[in-house]
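Input sequence (385 aa), recorded before submission:
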Amino acid sequence: MAWNEPGGGKQRDPWRDNKDGGGKNDLDEAINRAKEMLGRLFGGGRGNGSGGGSGSNRGSGGGAVLAIAGLLIAWVLFDSFVQIDARQQGVVLRFGEYSRTMPPGFNLKWPRPIESVTKVDATQIRAVSDTVRMLTRDENIVQVEFNVQYQVDDPTLYLYSTRDPDETLKQAAESAVREVIGTSELDAIMPDQRVEAVAGAAPVINPSAELALQSKKVVQQTLERYSAGLLVTELNFQNVRPPQEVKDSFDDAISAREDRQRASNIADAYAKRVVPEARGEAARILAEAKGYKAERIAKAQGDAERFNLIASEYRAAPEVTRKRLYIETMQDVVGGTPKVIDFTGGRNLLQIPVPEQAAAAALPATTAAAATATATATEPVKGRN
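Predicted structure, token format:
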């Protein structure tokens, strides 16, 4: 049987302690004490001796005030604590004026409408992209696709310094890119126009990356001038190309430029191959000339010294020197020929060996001829003396 069904004795109330005869429990007593206290504070519990109807009206009025007071207290307790996530910061306004910035964690504040908190995600990386047509300094039209990544640097400035900070950044980025592109020529903007680095030369910086870095600095300076509270972390040129209407003409110009560059590279390679060879040949000829010069000088000096020595020997012993010179001369003349000359008895003996035997017979034949010539040459000399 349910506790509130009639019959079966008195009703059973689960909020009452039936063991002690239906007395109130501690929760009821605490609620009643709180009601009495609030009634005394707001005048709901005071009687003035009038009729029962007047007391009933004051009791109902005191109950309404008590309910309103309880709601106010609950609302104050609930609205006085704010939890800020680790990635967020809380901007506190007191009566609509900036008061302070709350760090991550649990924070205490005055309830609304005294203080209000606006949470801002200060660590989120935001991005904006756009594609615009621009005019370069040499009056060429290019289509630039750029991407800007940024995050909130100052939550207060981000919320209240500008009406739409994200749109402000987009317009500032477009203005900065137009400024940088407008002061650069086409060859410095198009990625396929950059000069390739040659061997041994310093590396060439990508012109697009350098222009993007300049644009990033200009955007950041603009945002600081506007006090937008934003920090640009990255700005990239995703694509830089000519408009579709003139793409074919640009492709022809790029092809011609590539042909010119290729021909120039071939010429440079030929020059780098021929010039060192010519320098090496010149150095070789010069070294040979210097060697020949040194050789001739040394030989001439040696011949002069040899002649002086022979002359001194001839003065000391003319006969012996004359014979020695004759023998050496005949040895030099006969030593290089396969012919054998015999002057014995006034006859000449001519011997021509076959080619296979010439080399083997040359040495002993030359020795024998030298000996015969020496013996034969001695007689005329004695006769003359």
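Checked by second reader. The longest strand covers residues 141-152.
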